[in-house]
Amino acid sequence: MAHLLFHLRTPPHGHPAGEEALEAILATSVFEPPLTVLFEGDGVFQLVGNQDIHALGCRDLAANWSALPAYEVTDLRVHGPSLAARGLTPEDLLLAATVINDAELAALIAGVDRVLSF
Question: What residues are paired with 117 via a beta bridge?
């Protein structure tokens, strides 16, 4: 079965991509393919909790992302330079994720069969 990479680069609020990605990941996980989720750029905010979103009128998806391990989605990667550029550390994230650098990001993308970008 093809190894899939879900590549999230958009912020969690003000754009439907995060919710669409989460739904696609959970639906795909049922078929148990090799699956990796990568958070890069503003996509790292998908994994940050306690965001004040009420003024935006959006749903808070943080709890939904926390359900990934229950669906056996455990291969999570986060781009270290993206975290640093936003003043975040791995400890700020709701889920444990492997921090990768630019070279590891390029190798990850090159090493999978399909990339789904959100």
Answer: 7
Q: By the 8 A CB rule, do 90 and 99 touch?
A: yes
Half-sphere exposure of 36 (CA within 13 A, CB side): 23
pLDDT in tens, 29-60: 999 999 999 999 999 999 997 765 655 555 66
- Could you tell me the CATH superfamily of domain 4-117? DsrEFH-like (3.40.1260.10)
Domain ranges of the chain: 4-117
Residue 23's alpha-carbon distances to 17, 20, 67, 72, in angstroms, are: 10, 5, 11, 14
This prediction has a pTM of 0.91
